[in-house]
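Morning run. Coffee first, then this:
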Amino acid sequence: MEPAGTLSRVFVHNYLEEAADSSLADDVLDGLTRPFKELPPKHFYDEVGADLFDQVCDEPEYYPTRTERAILQERAAEIVELTGAAELVELGSGTAAKTRILLQAMADAGTLQRYVPFDVTEGMVRDVAAELTQEHPELTVHGIVGDFERHLEHIPAPDGPRIVAFLGGTLGNFIPGSRRRFLRQLADVLRPQDYLLLGTDLVKDPAIIEAAYNDAAGISAAFNRNVLHVINRELDADFEPDAFEHFAFFDREREWIEMRLRASRKMTVNVRALNLVIDFAPREEMRTEISTKFTPERLAEDLEASGLELAELLTDAEKMFSLTLARPAPG
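And here it is:
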């Protein structure tokens, strides 16, 4: 039970409801009727998927989470001093595991006022809000349950200097044109005194990247197949997840990792909620995620093309991952 007083500091608004089913239905209808089948990665993250991803992040092969966390631990106070942030908006907030480092730095600096977690899972948003308001008596939480590609306009008006955080390398899930379009949308959310904090994975030895998405424990495979469980549950489909093989590979030309599911045999899938029948040939592949790996030059070009300017680029010692602070370009 939450202590008295915390409920008055927590506000959660759900903008998904039936729209979530509509988004999934639209993506399945569009993506699985193409000659090359694909699904967007945002549908990985139901409660089971979020838990599986947390497990992936703990695997020794998966370097992005630990390197991003290390940068935050080393540079959080510097980020807060540079930005003067009183408020943190986090897109794809999940369990807020890394963000707590920033929130603590803001509390230590005496600037912490509000946290705005933005996620597709209402239960997770509420749980995080309850935990954080207990940890920080000065904190107000305004949770948004929504799809950040469609609901950015619901971010509340700022209470003070603001950081909008988009961590974990999620920006890399967008193809280049969509990536710049989304960055432009984020630029529109920022005032001149606000900052965007981006977590981006950097180009490196392809063997290191591929190992991160093909962990020996098989958790990445379970995470990948979970999207089929989501479709089965939400759209009354009859995918056999165990009949699909997980694999991930680094595309050296495009400098991104692709996760795919490969049908182990010929099969026919019924998606009854859509009155849709999908045929898979033996070994036919379906793409479920891309994750672009950046160079500093590519990142700077994307920011400039989106009306943003690079303020600070922070990396770990081995230059595996980066945190980038950007702000609206003048004029």
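The chain is about 35% helix and 25% strand. Good start to the day.
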